[in-house]
């Protein structure tokens, strides 16, 4: 994560937890968090291209991103299972 990305994310949370009008802070949080997260997403996708050979970029990016995709899928499956079990225990 670059310093700019980190700075935008930190500023977003400062705005979100700071004082002042709730609507203004919510808007500031949304804009700053979106900008920081957007930069992080772009960097995550282009950094391997800048560091490695462009002919191997697709395979390398796929290997680097696969772990995140697997964890995301597993988290959704686990959340669905927890929700199913929680409903069963609260329905009785």
Explained architecture:
Helix content is 87%, strand content 0%. Helix 1 runs antiparallel to helix 2. It has helices at residues 3-17, 22-51, 57-91. The protein starts with a helix and ends with a helix. It folds into two domains: 1-51; 57-92. It is mainly alpha-helical and 92 residues long.
Short synopsis of the structure:
The chain has three helices and no strands. The chain has about 90 residues and is an all-alpha fold.
Supply database-style keywords.
92 residues, mainly alpha, 0% strand
Number of domains: 2
Characterize the main sheet.
none
Averaged pLDDT: 80
Uncertain segments of ≥5 residues (pLDDT<50)? none
Portion of residues in helices?
Answer: over 70%
List strands and helices in order, with pairings.
Layout: H1 3-17, H2 22-51, H3 57-91
């Amino acid at each position: 994560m670059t310093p700019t990305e980190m700075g935008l994310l930190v500023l977003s949370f400062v705005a979100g937890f700071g004082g002042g009008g709730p609507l203004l802070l919510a808007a500031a949080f949304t804009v700053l968090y979106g900008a920081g997260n957007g930069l992080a997403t772009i960097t995550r996708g282009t950094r391997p291209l800048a560091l490695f050979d462009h002919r191997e970029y697709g395979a390398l990016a796929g290997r680097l991103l696969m772990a995140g995709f697997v964890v995301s899928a597993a988290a959704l499956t686990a959340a669905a299972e927890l929700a199913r079990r929680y409903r069963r225990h609260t329905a009785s």
